[in-house]
Amino acid sequence: MADNRAGIDSTTKEFIIHRDLHGRVAYELGTAILRGDFVPGSSLPREVELMERFGVSRTVLREALRTLTSKGMIQSRPKIGTRVRPREAWNLLDADMLHWYSRVAPPMHFALKLQEMREMIEPYAAALATRNHDAHALGKLEKAHRAMVAAQNVDEWVRADLEFHLCVLAACSNELLVPLGVLIERTLEGQLRLNAKRAEVFNASLAEHTAVFTAIVARDAEAARRAMSDLLGVTRARIEG
């Protein structure tokens, strides 16, 4: 396999490797905490032990620890060491954290938590989109819906399904909802793929998506809210089934 980093100057290559190392350590320590290997209130091993465990320098380790500190997971104090913070301090609405959590949480537990979040947000977002969408947003939503109609396999369906839900959030014209879509994108894709595989056919929920799309086009807020609730009800039934 060709080295994709060929041609990069040595200083840049060293930076990339350094960044990759501290990202790996942050991921492994972060998932260990999320998994419960280090419970809230407990101390992490000393720096020397962690450096040996991960085979990294003190600089790399400290960058990884700063990453976890910024996500609310740990706190370091002189003469006390590094302790795991209470769970309520963890920023699970961080893209990395949410992705890490999806990797270690019991699958059913995580799927239902994500589903609860969607049920609180998406029906209202669909209603809001009926009032706030412009021609550009509607065009993107229509394109996503057409891709769902044309999908020939699970992969095509999941890509179009994910884009459809992100387009609904974008059509709200609320700048705070768009980052939310980006935040849950990776974990939502996994849930959509699982739901498609559990259905009788991968596009079994096309009619429910079409109802959402039709209501948004018609600017019928109540119909859009109800259609999205119905769609999410189908999703929940597949998760629990």
UniProtKB/TrEMBL annotation:
Q: Name one GO molecular function term.
A: DNA-binding transcription factor activity
Q: Where is the HTH gntR-type domain?
A: 19-87
The reply on keyword Lipid metabolism is no
Superkingdom in the source lineage: Bacteria
Q: Can the keyword Mitochondrion be found in this entry's annotation?
A: no
- Which CDD domains would you find in this protein's record? WHTH_GntR
Q: Which PROSITE patterns match?
A: HTH_GNTR
**Keywords tagged on the record:** DNA-binding, Transcription, Transcription regulation
Against PANTHER family, the record matches this protein to:
GNTR FAMILY REGULATORY PROTEIN, TRANSCRIPTIONAL REGULATOR, GNTR FAMILY
Q: What is this protein called?
A: GntR family transcriptional regulator
Q: Which organism is it from?
A: Caballeronia grimmiae
